[in-house]
Design brief:
Helix content of chain B: 10-25%
Structural class of chain A: mainly beta
Strand content of chain A: over 45%
Radius of gyration of chain B: 26 Å
Mean pLDDT of chain A: 87
Radius of gyration of chain A: 42 Å
Largest interface: A-B, 44 and 45 residues
Number of helices of chain B: 9
Helix content of chain A: under 10%
Low-confidence stretches of chain A: 5-20
Distance between the termini of chain A: 58 Å
Oligomer: heterodimer
Shape of chain A: elongated
Low-confidence stretches of chain B: 1-20, 292-297
Shape of chain B: globular
Distance between the termini of chain B: 33 Å
Chain lengths: 498, 432
């Protein structure tokens, strides 16, 4: 009996144990963990926010902490070699005995006293009708090198009736005879036969001077006109600007010329234009519109400056259109008072540099910026909702508001997110001088619900429309200094469904 | 009554129980295998006993059962019920698994002297994890804002071969026994330090992770490349020892005490050690370059993470200790066929983790003995043990489980435990 009871109990338990569900079929239920993630933590200064100011821009910090947005560009650079050229000279003479006079005419009628060559080729051909054995000395006394006259020895024999020679003119200096408004050099031929000077009659002489590159020229030179110089200065600003104004209170453009031209130079700046997305403005004023004469340099380089400020130009209005770049054209001419004796070297150079200085003391008046990004958001199907927490501590003197627009592939706006109420970055409080005395702080929460997340998934582009404004609607100047910063912390609390 | 008081006293000091334990076997002195728990438990009869290969298996989960983990949802679907599991978890929890295969045991007794030898394979795996780890995985760090979440799990796993010889002697009312074990380590994974803490700042959700980890492994590649060669590996030697004593003040009453598994394995073959020690704070991406670049790169973040958490690796040999354990038992012969007892067992894993059981055995027939127990193991009393010992002439066949219900219905139990095997008394007419 006891054995039967025990056996029955054991069998019942084993039978119960054999009743297994298929545990492999078990699945996870609805599951919505929350992930808290820091996204952004930064402290930004003016250098960070104004890092995209073009290759020619940089920030300068004054001793009092003031920030000066500065652009530097070489407006023009010209060398004398561009505009003064020595033309080729070709001379032919028929019957002659021992002398020929070669004219060396310049296109503009320059009367040259002296010409030094960096390079050049002289080719001559001498013909005679009675061949005989003789020594002919070909020389040009007005062409010397290191005190030596240019001389060639021709050994003629009884069978030879002509000779062609080539001379490298590198380093030679010409000293011209000038008369009747022309420049001349003389060829001298001396012939010896058996040691005795004879005077044969030559059938012809041809001389060609070519490929002459000058080092220095002295004489009464005519005017030199350079091609006009046009260029642009990329400011890197204002690209996304669609409305509003930024009024800089104390901007200036400083133009500096350095010249070692041996001739007086005359400059004229034309079409100094600020170009924005919506229009242009021309810089004008007494200093800009008048011609600018640079005297000839002697031993030292000549330097001169031109300063366009709010006092002598319309530079404030010129810059208030939020230009993306500035374009300009400079006309340059040298030696307008022609006929005076002067020296011109091939490497004589004139350069003009422009410094556009924008001290960040300004009024920002309802500026609206618009920027568009192509986006491809990762799969957000598993996201139920996301709370984006934004905290900003701003000691810059401007507020920022922002609206994020989502558009689909056809450009249709499918959703809009307003960050904060009116502003999400509050301006620091300023004193009468426009300096920030205490930062503004604000926390905002942007909730992305399932519908917004789905729209994010659909979005092909996001368009950020940001508004900036300084104190009192941008009617009172504020000052940006190195003490300004923007601290931001952005975090997300996401409810997900893995 | 005295036994009940003792039980309650022990229950009062016990807070965590996680050990791998064979409780009911300790009360079955008729089986030579009881000597594995206390080398002073002597065979009852003189002569030779050959134990055929036997298997002892133990699975313990001190927090939840499979039924806690998986519940029926609706008519025919099953779902994981993690919140229910979480409600069962303590701060630290363990899931463990042991498998002992006794390949061959020989026992011998002559008057007061008894000896035995045993060859066995042992696998011992313990996985420690925190409730924070599960809570973090299920609810995310959003549920732990402002808290330091201790994630670092630990895994200690040993696989080794044991050759042991033991001897005991009866000295009047005392019996003493010792066992020497020669070990061959075959595989090991051991987490020495396992700290991985994550703090989420309540203001800006800035994350601070502290990782201090050291994981030692040995023999893993051997098994991947050539399991047969790995199984015959004797290049990771070890030694261990057991010692025990029994005291029988009266013929019906005996006390037993033992300490065992005190030993070390020196791992030098196929060793890989990985360690990480770093603190990483991530408060968000810095935007300082954002306005001057078109593409925001996370490369710097990735490089920092890699530099911080890329484990250092070396192959230096190391030693790992076995998990020492001790037994204290009281056994009372209530009649010629009945015995009752109490067993307390403890393992040392940095602190002592005890278990205890009350046992009753009764010989129903000359050929059948049944025993049962109630044990506190893995934080639950739901451990009703059952042992069945058949004996016919020289042959003894047994099956033991400290959780009989768990052995046949593991879904409902935190513990699954059984041992089966057979012994043969050698010599004509010899009985055990």
């Amino acid at each position: 009996m006891r054995a039967r009871v025990v056996t029955a109990i054991v069998l019942a338990l084993i039978a119960a144990g054999c009743f297994y569900d298929d545990l492999e079929q078990a699945r996870l239920p609805s599951w919505t963990p929350q992930l808290a993630l820091p996204l952004v933590s930064s402290e930004l200064n003016a250098g960070d926010l104004l890092s995209n100011i073009g290759a020619q821009g940089y920030l300068r910090y004054d001793d009092d902490g003031a920030i000066v947005l500065t652009y530097e560009a070489v407006v023009l650079s010209a060398v004398a070699g561009e505009v003064f050229e020595v033309p080729p000279v070709h001379f032919e003479a028929g019957s002659l005995t021992d002398h020929a006079e070669i004219p060396f005419d310049m296109p503009q009628g320059d009367l040259l006293a002296r010409l030094s060559l960096a390079s050049g080729i002289l080719t001559y051909t001498l013909e005679w009708s009675n061949p005989q054995q003789a020594e002919i000395i070909f020389s040009i006394p007005q062409i010397t090198k290191d005190g030596e006259v240019l001389t060639e020895l021709i050994l003629a024999d009884a069978l030879q009736s002509a000779y062609t020679g080539t001379i490298d003119l590198s380093g030679y200096t010409f000293e011209f005879d000038t008369r009747d408004g022309r420049n001349f050099i003389d060829v001298v031929l001396e012939t010896f036969s058996n040691g005795k000077l004879i005077h044969p009659v030559f059938g012809g002489l041809g001389v060609t001077l070519d490929d002459m590159d000058f080092l220095e020229v002295e004489g009464k030179l005519q005017s030199l006109h350079f091609d006009p110089r046009s260029d642009t200065l990329d400011l890197g600003l204002g690209r996304n600007w669609i409305s509003g104004n930024v009024v800089f209170v104390k901007p200036r453009i400083l133009l500096t010329v350095e010249s070692d031209f041996g001739l007086p130079v005359l400059l004229r700046i034309d079409n100094f234009l600020a170009v924005s997305n919506t229009g242009t403005a021309q810089l004008s004023g007494s200093v800009i519109n008048s011609a600018w004469e640079i005297p000839p340099a002697s031993a030292a380089v000549v330097q001169d400056t031109l300063n366009a400020t709010a006092a002598n130009s319309n530079i404030v209005d010129f810059l208030s259109i939020s230009p993306t770049h500035i374009s300009y054209q400079v006309n340059l001419a040298a030696n307008l008072l022609a006929g005076q004796s002067a020296v011109l070297r091939q490497n004589d150079q004139i350069t003009m540099t422009a410094h556009l200085e924008l001290p960040l003391e300004c009024m920002i008046q309802d500026v609206v910026l618009l920027d568009t990004f192509d986006v491809e958001f990762p799969d957000v199907e598993n996201l139920h909702s996301v709370d984006i927490n934004l905290w900003f501590e701003n000691s810059f003197p401007h507020t920022i508001s922002a609206q994020v627009l989502l558009s689909d592939s056809t450009g249709v706006i499918i959703d809009s997110l307003l960050i904060g109420d009116d502003t999400f970055i509050v301006a620091g409080a300023t004193n009468e001088a426009g300096d920030v005395i205490s930062p503004g702080e604000k926390t905002s929460v942007v909730r992305l619900d399932m519908e917004t997340l789905a729209n994010l998934q659909r979005a092909q582009k996001i368009i950020i429309r940001a508004g900036l404004s300084t104190d009192e609607g941008g009617t009172r100047p504020v000052r940006y200094t190195t003490a300004n910063h923007l601290r931001c912390k952005v975090s997300a609390l996401a409810t997900v469904s893995p | 009554m005295r036994y009940a008081l003792l039980l309650w006293f022990i229950a009062g000091i016990v807070t965590v129980t996680t050990a791998q334990q064979e409780m009911l076997l300790h009360a079955l002195h008729e089986l030579p295998q009881a000597g594995s728990l206390n080398p002073a438990i002597a065979p009852k009869k003189e002569g030779w006993i050959l134990s055929l290969p036997s298997v002892a298996f133990n699975y313990g989960n001190n927090a939840f059962t499979i039924d806690d983990l998986i519940r029926r949802h609706g008519a025919d679907s099953l779902v994981y019920d993690i919140p229910r599991v979480l409600s069962k978890l303590e701060v630290q929890n363990v899931i463990q698994y042991q498998l002992n295969v006794d390949l061959l045991r020989v026992s011998w007794r002559k008057r007061n002297l008894f000896l035995s030898a045993l060859v066995s394979e042992k696998v011992n795996t313990k996985f420690y994890y925190s409730d924070d780890l599960v809570h973090f995985a299920w609810y995310g760090n959003g549920a732990h804002i402002g808290d330091t979440v201790r994630l670092g799990p630990r895994l200690d796993a040993h696989y080794y071969r044991e050759l042991s010889v033991s001897g005991g002697y009866v000295l009047g009312k005392f019996t003493v026994g010792i066992r020497a074990k020669f070990l061959a380590g075959l595989g090991n994974v051991e987490t020495h330090v396992g700290q991985l803490d994550l703090y989420t700042d309540p203001v800006d959700y800035a994350l601070t992770a502290v990782a201090k980890y050291e994981v030692q492994t040995a023999g893993l590649e051997n098994f991947g490349e050539d399991p047969w060669r790995a199984a015959g590996n004797f290049r990771n030697p070890g030694i261990a020892a057991d010692a025990g004593i029994t005291y029988t003040p009266f013929p019906r009453l005996s006390f037993q005490a033992s300490i065992g598994n005190v030993g070390t394995i020196w791992w030098s073959d196929d060793v890989k050690k990985y360690s990480v020690d770093g603190t990483y704070e991530f408060g968000g991406i810095a935007l300082n370059n954002f306005f001057s670049v078109d593409t925001l790169t996370l490369k710097n973040l990735g490089d920092t993470l890699k530099a911080t958490f890329l484990p250092r690796e070396d192959s230096l040999s190391y030693a790992s200790d076995l998990v020492p354990r001790g037994y204290i038992g009281v056994r009372w012969k209530a009649g010629s066929r009945t015995h009752v007892g109490v067993v307390v067992q403890g393992e040392y894993v940095g602190d002592i983790r005890p278990s205890f059981a009350a046992t009753v055995g009764h010989r129903l027939f000359p050929f059948l003995e049944l025993a049962t127990s109630v044990a506190w193991k893995n934080r639950t009393w739901e451990n009703v043990g059952l042992a069945v010992v058949f004996q016919w002439k020289q042959v003894q066949v047994y099956g033991i489980s400290d959780n009989f219900v768990g052995a046949i219905q593991p879904r409902h139990s935190r513990n699954v435990n059984f041992r089966i095997g057979a012994n043969v008394a050698l010599g004509q007419g010899q009985k055990m």
